[in-house]
Design brief:
Layout lengths: L4 H5 L14 E8 L5 E7 L1 H4 L4 E6 H6 L31 E2 L5 E7 L2 H10 L1 E6 L6 H4 L15 E7 L2 H9 L3 E13 L7 E7 L4 E6 L4 H12 L6 E5 L15 H12 L2 E5 L2 H7 L2 E13 L5 E13 L9 H4 L12 E10 L13 H19 L3 H8 L8 E2 L5 E2 L4 H11 L5 H10 L3 E7 L15 E7 L5 E5 L8 H13 L6 E4 L17 H19 L1 H8 L6 E4 L2 E4 L5 E3 H6 L5 E7 L8 E10 L6 E11 L6 H20 L31 E5 L17 H18 L13 H9 L9
Parallel strand pairs: 1-12, 10-11, 14-15, 20-21, 27-28
Antiparallel strand pairs: 1-5, 2-4, 2-6, 3-5, 7-15, 8-13, 9-10, 9-12, 13-14, 16-17, 18-26, 19-20, 19-25, 22-23, 23-24, 26-27
Length: about 750
């Protein structure tokens, strides 16, 4: 059982709209209804005179008050060899709008109804301009410009590997498989939309922002420069978070605008996005085209891989927009030995909402690229897909292994994981199941993917995490930690770490998190890092306390310090039957003992696994049913296998959602978001999910004291590829070589109708 569940499932969670604020006012945003154009006028006079209206704020107001543009956290080389092109991203649009939903004004009123009425009365006149929403079209010479300063709509160009060397290998290869792959645009669509409570304390000259997020310190760091203050002047307090998946882990334009308005009006302000607003204003994700070429020799051994990605960044660069297309690019090497790899990523502006990290943040995309072209290669040379993978897997005895392309894998048994997955999924018996389904008029397919991802990075030096552990003589434990829970079960895992390390009863344990005032430092929860980073920091703080109390144990045991060893809450004399518990030593202390750390692990880790999925397709309707799904995952040591299974199962649901139904679509002519409600944006339901069999195959890492590798994103990283592999396999007997995601019933039906009518064969 998870420690957190009781409060959350009995209605005692504290989400944004559960938080009470005294004498609060309400803010709403006026957003552009066109995708591109020059702002001719914003007339707010009539709205300002309406009852209960306190203020109407526009972009020029913020700029005049000294607010700065939002800046990206990272930068890549520019497309012309210079600096990355960074547009001016003010919290409210100033002269132009560049996507549907671009905020142009904010209304503050006593009540939400009054604010909404006034927002309707704000007159915004925009001189419309042509739009471009597809990154492939955006680079055409005659494409409409998102920014006049950037004549080719390019933001950055990132390259890794030796292009000439890869081209030479491809030119002489026995087989070369090429495919353009579409990786669709998705939205996080959390249960709880974004919202915030903003206030300003003039006595302390401090802003406060309450919201749901997994990374309060990062949000503070993003917002403070926009306001022109130090991060410690922006206190971020995180409540329970009804879904984030990375989307809520950055500063958005609404936040500094709200804080400015709170200071201007002297009131506490509340803003809650409705669902339509969330679809338009929350960061989207994925959205790229990838041209991939895989070269093989006559025996099916990989020789070279060439990948060119065009990533749709949207109109603006949020703090983390430039991260996903590049940061986890090393994943295209997969778990395979490919001697030569080259990749190029072009970041491209379009008249769409910004993209940002979403569960996996580049990892599912990288895995999809390599796994899809392997499937196509197996079909091309007539080899079983699992066998082709097996021939090219990195052997266990070569660990640690440098892929030659960005990543060095710390540990793993890739062949063992594959063999276990094939066994539990009965890969060998599939053709009999295909035949049985065919007799029922269904097309059955099986898919496979061997995902690997970086966790707890960056690869060169992992981000640190903060923990402070305080223990009273009575055994009460208080932990301050920089990571914020949004459903992962941190409280349960952290308690287990303390129980295992110190042998204490963790029922009386308090975890303090999510407050940049109470927790002085922190990095946050993302990238499958928390158990390694935060758990490692807690372990290190506990070790400091263990060492501090070792003198007391030495005296108690009448031994020399060098003879004392500590394991599972017990000090004992090495080689002799004399021991004393940590709890006993702690009980003799005069007061609480504490230690704090802000530490990094030795290096990144690389969770890996094998996903096998089976589907049945109805050829009359194109409907896809998932009938079986199994996962073998190496996430290192599993502190709590139930938490691991929950994380992987949830990740699988999100991966299958993108593979089969989720698709954020903009009209190519108007730039209108066509999938702006749940009537148009499909989400997986319980009936779409088969029971997922999750089997652990732990190969502990030495990169952190817990031996853990991370599990939060593993399900999504593998599922996107495995599901598309299964659907493609179901259609393969009909001559369908490739189908882009999402594999909707309409798309499958149309695909089958265009194929020659013939009797399917295995």
């Amino acid at each position: 059982m998870r420690f957190e569940d009781d409060a959350l499932i009995t209605g005692r969670g504290r989400y944004m709209n559960d938080l009470a604020a005294k004498s609060e006012a309400v803010a709403v945003f006026v957003r552009s209804q066109v995708a591109s154009g020059r702002i001719v006028i914003i007339d707010s006079d009539a709205a300002a005179g309406m009852p209960e209206v306190l203020a109407i704020i526009t972009g020029p107001d913020l700029k005049a008050a000294g607010l700065a543009p939002i800046e990206p956290r990272g930068r890549h080389p520019g497309p012309d060899g210079g600096e990355m092109r960074v547009p001016l991203f003010y919290p409210l649009a100033i002269d132009h709008v560049r996507y549907v939903g671009d905020p142009v004004a904010m209304v503050v009123a006593e009540t939400k109804s009054a604010a909404l009425d006034a927002a309707e009365a704000v007159l915004v006149e925009i001189e419309e301009r042509p739009v471009v929403v597809d990154p492939l079209e955006a680079v055409f010479p005659d494409a409409p410009l998102v920014w006049d300063d950037f004549p080719d709509n390019r933001c950055f160009t990132y390259e890794k590997g030796d292009k000439a060397d890869v081209d030479a290998s491809i030119a002489t290869a026995h087989t070369v498989v090429r495919q353009r792959l579409r990786i669709s645009r998705v939205v996080a669509a959390p249960i709880e939309t974004r919202g915030a409570i903003a206030s300003y304390d003039p006595a302390a000259d401090q802003y406060q922002l309450e919201l749901g997020t997994q990374a309060p310190h990062r949000v503070s760091g993003d917002v403070a420069p926009v306001l022109g203050v130090a991060p410690d002047k922006v206190r971020v307090v995180a409540s329970d978070c009804g879904g984030s998946f990375g989307m809520k882990n950055a500063g958005y334009p609404e936040y500094p605008a709200l804080l400015f308005a709170a200071r201007k009006t002297g009131r506490t302000l509340r803003w809650t996005a409705d669902r339509l607003e969330a679809f338009q204003a929350d960061a989207h994700a994925r959205d790229m085209w990838a041209d991939a070429a895989l070269a093989l020799d006559a025996d099916g051994m990989f020789l070279a891989l060439d990948v060119h990605v065009r990533a749709n960044l949207g109109a603006y660069l949020g703090p983390a927009t430039a991260h996903p297309p590049v940061a986890n690019l090393g994943g295209i090497a997969g778990v395979y030995r490919t001697p030569k790899i080259y990749a190029k990523v072009d970041g491209i502006f379009t008249n769409t909402q910004q993209t940002a990290p979403y569960r996996g943040a580049g990892r599912p995309e990288a895995t999809y690229i390599i796994e899809r072209v392997i499937d196509l290669a197996a079909d091309e040379i007539g080899l079983d897909r699992a066998e082709l993978r097996r021939r090219n897997l990195v052997p266990q005895d070569t660990m640690p292994y440098s892929s030659g392309f960005i990543f060095t894998y710390d540990s793993g048994d890739f062949p063992g994981v594959l063999d276990k997955a094939l066994e539990i999924a009965d890969w060998a018996g599939f053709e009999a199941r295909r035949s049985e389904a065919r007799a029922r008029g269904k097309l059955r397919g099986i898919g496979i993917a061997n995902p690997i991802e970086i966790a707890g990075g960056p690869v060169a030096r992992p981000n640190p995490e903060f923990a402070r552990v305080e223990i009273s003589p009575a055994g009460k434990i208080r932990i301050h930690v920089g990571s914020m829970d949004s459903g992962q079960g941190h409280g349960t895992a952290f308690r287990q770490i303390i129980a295992d390390r110190l042998g204490l009863d963790t029922e009386d344990m308090e975890i303090v998190t999510g407050d940049t005032h109470e927790v002085p430092w922190g990095t946050g929860t993302f990238g499958s890092r928390t158990l390694a980073a935060a758990g490692g920091a807690i372990w290190a703080a506990a070790d400091t306390i263990i060492e501090r109390l070792k003198e007391h144990a030495t005296a108690r045991l009448e031994a020399h310090r060098s003879e004392i060893v500590f394991e599972h809450g017990i000090y004992r004399v090495d080689g002799r039957n004399r021991a004393v518990s940590f709890a006993q030593i702690m009980a003799e202390q005069a007061g609480p003992v504490s230690a704090e750390t802000f530490v990094s692990n030795e290096g990144a880790t690389f969770p890996n696994g094998c996903h096998i999925c089976e589907v049945e397709v109805d050829p009359e309707t194109g409907h896809v049913e998932l009938v079986a799904y199994s996962v073998v995952d190496d996430v290192g040591h599993m502190v709590n296998p139930s938490l691991v299974k929950g994380q992987i199962t949830g990740g699988v649901a999100q991966g299958l959602g993108q593979a089969l139904m989720e698709n954020a679509v903009y009209d190519p002519h108007s730039g209108q978001l066509l999938s702006a409600t749940f009537m148009d944006y499909a989400m997986p339901r319980a009936a779409d999910m088969p029971g997922v069999e999750v089997v652990g195959y732990p190969v502990p890492t030495r990169q952190n004291p817990l031996g853990v590798k991370g599990a939060g994103e593993a399900g999504t990283v593998g599922a996107l590829s495995a599901v598309m592999s299964a659907v493609s396999d179901a259609l393969r007997p009909f001559g369908v070589r490739h189908l882009d995601m999402p594999a909707t019933p309409d798309r499958i039906w149309r695909c089958l109708k265009t194929q020659p009518v013939k009797e399917p064969s295995a």
